[in-house]
Amino acid sequence: MEDISSKVFAQYEEKRENAARRRRARIDSVYDEIPRIKEIDAEMNMRGMKNVQNILREPSRSDEFNADLNENLDRLEKEKNELLDAHGIPRDFSKYEYECSECSDTGYTPDGKQCRCLKQSFIDEAYNSSNIKELLKKCTFKSFRMDYYSAEKGKYPDSPFNNIKRIYKRTVDFCDEFDTEGKSLFFYGTTGLGKTFLSCAAMGRLIELGKLVIYVRASKLFSIFEDNKFGRLQDRKLLDDLYNCDLLIVDDLGSEAQGKFNSAFLFDILDDRLARGKKLIINTNLDLKETGKVYSMRFTSRVMENFIVCRFYGEDIRYKSMMM
Description:
This protein is α/β, with parallel strands linked by helices. It folds into two domains: 2-86, no CATH class; 127-323, P-loop containing nucleotide triphosphate hydrolases (Rossmann fold). It contains 13 helices and five strands. A five-stranded parallel beta sheet has the order 2-3-4-1-5, with helices on both faces. The longest helix has 32 residues, at 2-33. The protein is elongated, with a radius of gyration of 27 Å. The chain starts with a helix and ends with a helix.
């Protein structure tokens, strides 16, 4: 856990340094465009320091000095704002712009509590799915391409295009109605059809809404269970978070090495989360019949009852996207 903490807090320090660099670059750009702004800022700073010196020298005249300072600062501020407005530059151009406005990239809110972004950063690092951060940048609802899916029905119940339109809408609705919609999502179909993409898009949307989301590959999920079972799990919180996070995304279910107790563990997580109204998204290449054989019909029955089941079909869009 110590190693995870050091990594996360190093990332936050880097975020603050980047915010400071961006701010400095904006200020320098404005100074280059409007040299008078630089002169005004320098004069305001000079007058402030001079005012402190005057008060220290003659404390009895502090009210007089402060009134004079405020009059001059108001005059300079008015001139500065007029210049900025004339050049179409925001008046708050020198403000720090942090990734998280709630904690100013410190990880802690003003009342001293852990910010939601810090909690999510710990989760992302603990379950590190190696490329999850890159996936979140690339996989958004806005960037999802439906034109890769065929409009021809062919051998399918409907055209892949119409089918993915429905799945896309269900996934967006799942996010928008997260606190009221009762059901989770079960995505199945062959590889390269967008299951992981839409899962990551949902993850990104819900993180923006302040939800704690864990994305974990099935192999990692079951390795956490094995480590806990045999006393190798160093941080029990890894297991607890799987039960308690707002959304658990299990990717590539069925690709993991089959273990004797995998089915019971998976059902326990599913049953516990559903009982407490906590959502899941499960991605698998297995159809429902195959899922029942691997993880028990009881598991499949729960899925049918508590999930919106979405079948992905069509040609491999990853191959098509590389060819276009």
